[in-house]
Amino acid sequence: EDSAGRLMRHELVTVPESWTVGDTIDYLREATDLPETFYVIYAVDPSRIPVGRLLLSTILHNRREARLADI
């Protein structure tokens, strides 16, 4: 019960893989239910199965038009 794994937060930020960087940034700015601190965003397919992992820095270093599936 007191192990590190048990104490870790299990909140994830997920977005559709079909979104663009711009869509993702707009979502992050407007969302009110995001974890207080996060560095990774998971791209999910229409069945909500994770298909990719993106660091915030990677998202911010790409153009707004770039599709997450292409990064």
Please provide a brief summary of the model.
By secondary structure, the chain is α+β, with helices and mostly antiparallel strands. Helices cover 27% and strands 20% of the residues.
Fold and architecture overview:
Helices cover about 25% and strands about 20% of the residues. The chain is α+β, with helices and mostly antiparallel strands. Helix 2 links the parallel strand 1 and strand 2. The protein is built from 3 helices and 3 strands; from the N terminus they run H-E-H-E-E-H. It has a 3-stranded mixed sheet with strand order 1-2-3.
Q: Shape, please? A: globular
Global structural class: alpha+beta
Strand order of the largest sheet: 1-2-3
How many E strands? 3
What's the end-to-end separation, in Å? Answer: 38 Å
Classify the oligomer: single chain
Helix content: 25-40%
What is the alpha-carbon Rg in Å? Answer: 13 Å
* Count of helical regions: 3
Average per-residue pLDDT, rounded, comes to 90
Largest sheet: 3 strands, mixed
Which stretches are low in confidence, meaning pLDDT under 50 for 5 or more residues running? none
User: How big a fraction of the residues is strand?
Assistant: 15-25%
- The string of secondary-structure elements, in order, is HEHEEH
